[in-house]
């Protein structure tokens, strides 16, 4: 009986600490904050897509020039 009592007390203390640690986690974001995060990510994605499209346009222009010069020679 003497050995199980300290073990039960230790187990109880661990459970109490675990509950307290869990409750101190990251606070959930409000729907407005989530929406702002999504909007910011969408803006970043659109910027990347715009840059990619510009690169593809440059590559297309270069390919057209190569075709033009290849027909001339």
What structural class do helix, strand and pairing data support?
A: mainly alpha
Oligomer: single chain
Helix content bin: over 70%
What is the beta-strand fraction?
Answer: under 5%
**Could you name the ranges where pLDDT drops below 50 across 5 or more consecutive residues?**
none
Task: Give your account of this protein's structure.
The chain is mainly alpha-helical. It is about 85% helix and about 0% strand. The protein is built from two helices and no strands. It has helices spanning about 5-25, 30-70. The protein is elongated. The mean pLDDT is about 85.
How is the secondary structure organized here?
Layout: H1 4-23, H2 31-72
List its salient traits.
single chain, 73 residues, mainly alpha
Would you summarize the structure shown here?
This protein has 73 residues and is mostly helical. It is built from two helices and no strands.
